């Protein structure tokens, strides 16, 4: 790692930020060395996630200095050697856990490249949970190695330690990703989080503030009630804050949802520290993690819905011509038939294919042939009525559904399309486009497949008549 004056300044700024965040978390302790969450865990996780092993030295220095600072704040009579030993052990324990977890998380997230946001959320939560659990165990081991005489009750220590680190990581890591990208602007925004800060706002700032105030008011009611009334079960009411938080998630941008989540978590930590609610601390720690996870999966829902919509459009749309596929045409036809039968209205069907299409491909090439198909499909789409339906049957064959037209009216429509089709210009094609049409009217209780067979028979008769013809089937 080459240290230029600029990079040295950035690493120094990061270390100062880490220590500041650590100090603020200390101020929110509800009892000595017990805070509802540990935001520096989120900063370390975000640093390794974005910077990889380049974050090793600054994170180690920050955790080393925080340990010495803790001894100074406690005014414990401990030798300098003991303080240094503890700081080194804690520093190594911290960077080993967050180094491996954060770097691996960054690797797997970067592979997704924002193409699968729900999967990215899952990866972030999975690695966040595993990393903080590893950090808990390594931290407890480090405490024992630094001072073998220290009596540590593992069973009562590991869970609040882990959930505190987990809450700090789940809630604050996205915020710290933005901060780190501000410090290192040359980093690529492969997470997409920084880009969210520039996304258009869904609602006005005043509306967002109102939602935040409602959320904070509900939080205050829960916290005061829990502290005032002798009922431990009241603490579980904090989980209902997922509802107003999800209101913000679904009605605001992702960035505002992340900010709301961070502010709510900060408020919960402040309330617990201010009121000294140690008996309910573990409940609120779990609440922070659950509310954060719900919010992130809530952010993924619009992305998932958009992906499903894209897949649906790909499934029903012909990739070449842009009109609907045969299968979707049949599905839509069945729905129209049911409606028309109830209304006792006629429905007709056209099937046509381009004349001498094989000759066009052989003479001008398949690219010109594809262009002819696209031009024909788009032209027919413009020439039919708004309520009509056009789809690709396969190859150079197309289908047109004509609701509210009987056989004679449908034949007139086919004649009009046959007349207008040669006026279409196709780049590189020196021949006019013509087509042969088969026309039928749906009979009572006739299935779509049966109608297609009759229409195809009519199309064959049109070809036998010399092509560029219209034939009907009774």
Automatic annotation (TrEMBL):
Its main location: membrane. It catalyses: 2 GTP = 3',3'-c-di-GMP + 2 diphosphate. One of its GO terms (molecular function) is diguanylate cyclase activity. Its EC number is 2.7.7.65. Gene3D superfamilies: 3.30.70.270. SMART domains: GGDEF (SM00267). One of its GO terms (cellular component) is plasma membrane. CDD domains: GGDEF. It is a multi-pass membrane protein. The chain crosses the membrane at residues 12-30, 42-72, 87-109, 121-146, 166-187, 208-225, 231-250, 257-276, 282-305. InterPro entries: Diguanylate_Cyclase, GGDEF_dom, MASE1, Nucleotide_cyclase, Rev_trsase/Diguanyl_cyclase. Its cofactor is Mg(2+). Keywords: Cell membrane, Membrane, Transmembrane, Transmembrane helix. PANTHER family: DIGUANYLATE CYCLASE DGCM-RELATED (PTHR45138:SF9), REGULATORY COMPONENTS OF SENSORY TRANSDUCTION SYSTEM (PTHR45138). This is diguanylate cyclase. The lineage of its organism: Bacteria, Pseudomonadati, Pseudomonadota, Gammaproteobacteria, Alteromonadales.
